[in-house]
Write a structure and sequence with these properties.
Length: 189
């Protein structure tokens, strides 16, 4: 997995993004319910048994935090043209429970011109479930870090909207499209 090959040292904490960029946070929660029934059906087709993570499935402190920012009911759904092809894509944080085992996974449904989707699984989460949510990253510069894949950088520029997977009060990772596939970088820890 690409995420496992990246070496990243972070120079700022997650709360800094929330404090310095309230417009980004506000955009993330401006869509009300987030996913319509068509997107839920598509997610169910590609990931049977998984449901989009909603507020009711989150840690109470995270629920309270998100409610204070805005009133989006599905912190597990973000829209954007992530691959830059001019069609709407959807990033989804999905959850599946079988008996005592719960799994969450971050996926993207890449929209195609014919109305279909191409599913891309970005991450499977098995720990600290209920403490994750996703938000959009607008094109432009993101984060500061000392080292990414062995090269030193101060920042990175996204050509297209990206997705940020946030572990509440702990860490975040940005996923972005480049050279025909998704890549990721740690944006805070």
């Amino acid at each position: 997995m690409i995420a496992d090959r990246l070496v990243v040292r972070v120079l700022w904490v997650p709360i800094a993004l929330c404090l310095c960029c309230p417009a980004i946070e506000s955009q993330a929660f401006a869509q009300g319910k987030g996913c319509d029934d068509e997107i839920r059906r598509a997610a169910g087709k590609y990931y049977p048994g998984y449901l989009v993570v909603g507020l009711d499935g989150l840690d109470p402190d995270l629920r309270q935090y998100l409610a204070a920012i805005d009133h989006r009911q599905e912190p597990g759904c973000v829209k954007g043209d992530f691959d830059g092809d001019g069609t709407q894509d959807y990033a989804l944080l999905l959850r599946k429970q079988i008996d005592e085992t719960t799994t969450e996974r971050l996926v993207v449904l890449l929209g195609r011109a014919d109305g279909s989707f191409t599913p891309v699984s970005l991450e499977i989460l098995k720990d600290r479930l209920g403490s994750f949510y996703i938000r959009p990253l607008p094109p432009g510069k993101i984060g500061k870090w000392a080292e990414v894949e062995g090269s030193k950088r101060e920042s990175m520029t996204l050509e297209h909207p990206g997705i940020e997977l946030v572990l509440y009060e702990a860490a975040s990772r940005a996923y972005f499209w480049s050279n025909g596939k998704f890549h990721s970088v740690q944006t805070s820890d």
